[in-house]
Predict the 3D structure of the following.
Amino acid sequence: MAKGGGAVSAPVLPPLPLASFQAAIEFIFTPQSSNVTGGAKVGGLEQVLELTLTQLEVTFLALALALAVALPIGLYLGHRGVGEALAIGLGNAGRAIPELALIAFMAAAIGVGLLNVTIALAILGIPPLLTNAFVGIRQVDRASVDAARGMGMSELEVLAKVEVPLAVPTLMTGVRTATINIVATATIAPLAGVLTLGDFIINRNVYGDDGVLAGAILVALLALALELSLAGLQRALTSKGLKVSTA
Amino acid sequence: MRTTSNRMRAAAALLLTLLLSLGVVACGSDDEDTTSGSEGGEAGAIVSNPENGDVTLTVGSKNFTEQIVLGEVYAQALEAAGYKVKKQLNLGSETVARQAVKSGQISGYPEYASTALTSFFEVEPEEVPADATEAYEDAKADFEEEGLTAFPPTPFASANAVGTLKTTAEERELETVSDLEGQSEEMTLYGSPECRQRIDCLAGLEQYYDLKFKKFVPVDIGLRYTVLDNGQADLSILFTTDAQLAAEEDKYVILEDDKEVFPAGNVIWVTTPDVVEEAGPDYEATITQVQEGLTLKVMQELDARVELEKEPAAKVAAEYLESAGYTG
């Protein structure tokens, strides 16, 4: 803009990160006032716990649904060594589905609410589960599989006793990826009738910047906690699997 | 093995096609046939002043349909008055837009007086004056304290409103929000996630109307009509300038806010004194002149054409200017 020497006001500097963090932590533990609620306080431990529980609830429901759909298909295709295009192609295509559009699309058919959110998030979890199940089973040493067959194992036994145990690290990587995707994306659930921690992040007008940051911190912590627990689970499962394969 | 593999591949291709078509449907629009064409105003044409040719104005707007339409209307009017005009539409929220005016990145942008008062100047929603001029004066005084200024308001005002299907309203004999008394306990209300705690939304309905709802469900504002259409919501929080209200007059109704919980916001042009000084008297004159024809009905219709019929905002704005007699 051609402007004739008028004073340009200095840009407002963002507050110190440390101070913002302190305010966000305070928001997590103590209810704060908000200028749009007519005096009612927002935030605080009680609300944080409530929203965290819902966030975990939808995460687990969606993960369970995704596992129920993706594992049988991935294991079957991997075992038979067919359908690579489906397992990898659909897996990759699935990652590109816009969640919000999916929720809106399903809203017209089944409405909004827990079912809608669970399905939308499960669809997000299916690609990594499917791809990793397929790849995990495919990469198992063919010699071990042939040996198992030679010992007279049925196809189901080959899958359950040889292939799956040896594929545990890859399978679990899929589970971890799916879980992180789901728990992080569950923040959009308040846009479809389910109040998760995303409520803090979406409603800056109500919770202020402190609430937004608090929401982000909480979701990050939750994702980290889930990731660590699953890593522990993977270690436990893997050692057992190795014992089977070396036996 | 070979045939199985081919079959799998065919199945995969089919699934992919399905997925893709699903995406297309999700992105598609409902092309509803509605009558369009703005009502003509009586205001005179905007006269181009050659002196304005040395001044470049950058018109800003926030990031939703109505704002973009308004941005186009103001930009084209200023252009008709002889200014060189650049556009920075779709900037983001009011926080971003205000910062852009302050830093000189844009010359001005349209803001709702009620939003300015509640969002920038910490006025409680119930204290926002119902009178448009009064709200404008308040907002202008607050803007001046931070080195900005504002031009007088548009005829139309945008506000939240409790909406429902016409059939529901007739069945339950609803005309005002107060009529919900005694019935709200068996009705579900859907609104944006932030509505839940806002005093100018659900919290206000509970507090001032003393209403309790069967359930409040937060949804994306883009779904505010979907939830009414699919029968999930008995009531939904709508905006008075919504395109759908103009397009389907006998489908949706708005319940009159008889206790004034939802502050109405007329649009005011936010700018800086420096720009006003540089641009001269035609700047304010053009802005106030071109918005004279923007009544609620006209604004709804302009919004409808962009949002529902997917016409370009620039074209819709140009046709408004022409049919209202501002341009040639």
Q: What stands out?
A: The mean pLDDT of chain B is 86.
